[in-house]
Amino acid sequence: xxxSILIVTHGMGDHDxxxxxxxxxxxxxxxxxxxxxxxxxxxQENKAFEDYVDVVPIEYNNIFEEERQRLVEANxxxxxxxxxxxxxxLRFVKELVKLEGKLADDNFYTTHLADVLFYASLLCERVRVxxxxxxxxxxxxxxxxxxxxxxxxxxxxxxxxxxEKAFTGGIIDxxxxxxxxxxxxxxxxxxxxxxxxxxxLLFELNPIxxxxxxxxxxxxxxxxxTGAIRYFYNVYHRFDPFTLFxxxxxxxxxxxxxxxxxxxxxxxxxxxxxxxSKNPHDLGGYxxxxxxxxxxxxxxxxxxxxSPPREEARQVRDSVVGAFAKIDQIGDHVKEIDSVEDFxxxxxxxxDFKTFIDDL
Length: 360
What we know:
By secondary structure, the chain is an alpha/beta fold. The chain has one domain. 46% of the residues lie in helices and 12% in strands.
């Protein structure tokens, strides 16, 4: 049995390769051990998720940290920094001026909530090059192994944009002059998991449109031999503020993909409970939810290695209950969030939600 490969990338926050990998592996093993027949076999064989799946993390936080440090050292208002030091587009600077008027806490710009600002304006191409280098290396050396991709939060936008450029000519590394690209027939991705998918939100809100429209890109499932992605999973939590507005949510009548493909190889998964974290945006929390874990393990693990009896799978879904008693408070808070129609309102909403969750 050949191990499958899972490429994972993160969202906003202080991530490194090992912590990202640990989040995914721990959630997968927690879920595997909920199934009595699977747990017994794993114990007998002394195996775990990582014995079946090679997890390859892609982290890009180092790029943001470098810019964040320059921002701190410049000791300027953030809008001045983006305008004078970073030479950002003036349309984006205007959004920052609006944001400064909404935020009283200047320390916000030294936190990881500012990562979305960096990706949307100054650093998107550097992030994409760093991601694509890993994708090219893994896909070129895959042999006959299945390759899956899991992206979370800001990483969904970065991964979408990276794949779109990779499959439509590639990206040139400005430091070396080398072009990195993928071929949709040769470098096929067996499944793409977009968790807390903000690809459309970031595309629509960004005034300088550094990203790509997910409804009109190559990043979609296809049952034909020329398709780049075999299965597409779109996952969100009902109380995740990142997915409340302008969510990527294709409908059959949108003709985003062929009708047969939409019914058979596109999956939307909506979760509602909290298991390992009080934050509905938490990646480990998403992957620990049986509604996500069951199809995730069935798809990502090598064929035949995760196939619990149907009745056992049903019992697991019914018996695992949400562990966080204050979920109703989160729901009440989310219901009070106004619609966001511009970039500054979105960032302000995220800051307020983080404060609310931290105080629970």
